[in-house]
Amino acid sequence: MADSPLNSTLPGLPAAPARALGHIRVLDLTRVLAGPWCAQNFADLGADVIKVERPGAGDDTRSWGPPYLRDAEGRDTSEAAYYLAANRGKRSVTVDIATPEGQEMIRSLARQSDVVLENYKVGQLKKYGLDYDSLKREKPDLIYCSITGFGQSGPYAQRAGYDFIVQGMGGFMSLTGERDELPGGGPQKAGVAISDLMTGMYATIAVLAALSHRDRTGEGQYIDMALLDVQVAMLANMNTNYLASGTPPVRWGNAHPNIVPYQTFATADGHIIVAVGNDGQYRRFVEAGGCPELAADERFATNPMRVRHRSTLVPLLAEMVRRKTKQEWISLLETAGVPCGPINNLDEVFDNPQVQARGLRVDLPHPSGGKVKLVGSPMRMSATPPAYDRPPPLLGEHTADVLRDLLGKDEQEIASLRQRGIV
User: Fold this and answer.
1) Is the pLDDT of residue 18 over 90?
2) Which of 28, 114, 196, 229 is catalytic?
């Protein structure tokens, strides 16, 4: 196990809170989103995560703006908000891995790490001697996780993988979007990079499982994560619906194929979700809207009848809902016991009392002189909760510290490496 500096406590100070992964060091050779998201989970849980970046450029997402982080005077810095979302808690080290000296530094850091994460193209790190087989010879119990678009095998292995393309290729967009026969119908991607994010989460689980196996047996292993694999797997019941029936599911927009009404409706000032699960809830819904006759009508009295007469009923319900505001409807339906909810923009999300009570926003001091506003981990743990010691690092912020403390470089050696562009 790596001896992480996060476990140490200065003399005279109270002991640091227990960290679930405070004994783990992760060497993070990833960039953009899937890999950094995985690495950030480890940092939140106390691991020492060393993020290796290109000298002078760094992670691609550092420049994916605007918006950018603002300093104490309200001026834009060079840190893009996209980068800030996935790199909290890490130490940034710049190393040119195309140079022999840079490669040797990475090998030395890998020997002192428990986990290596990378998302280079298939085979790219082998020419640098930084692939799993090469590093395994120097550290047999190493956990090495590769993240690519299509995996290490198969006819697409050499293709570059992008979240948007994978959402389409993996079937998600065939299920997401308004029905083809309605205005605006057609396939739609998700509003966030879900295949990247879910791959980061699955990679986190796989690495934790591999660490548990290593702790029992002393054996390291290789993990092959692919965005396409994850995108297909996460379709869940839609996959089994297809496999059981042989009929591919279709897009239903915000409606439900088997329940009516179970969809969004426009109110006088926004939108709400109404999720009627039984006939009693439906009756209370239309009574709250002042239209009890829509419950008495035999065409709409039961869910099977409402599904059959969906095209007649839904426009009548839409007209009813438009007569009141979003908050009026939510108050009425919560009182009536009808499942409902708002469709909030992010202003409303972060003003929501439940979100505030759960402490989801985290503000950290930043080397720019300002504060970085982030969203905390949703993992709630009674004994070893996530902690936020470090903001997303500046490019190369910790290079000298890591080279000195882990690789034994003195100031003269570090200065020479900088002068030659190796770090």
Assistant:
1) no
2) 196
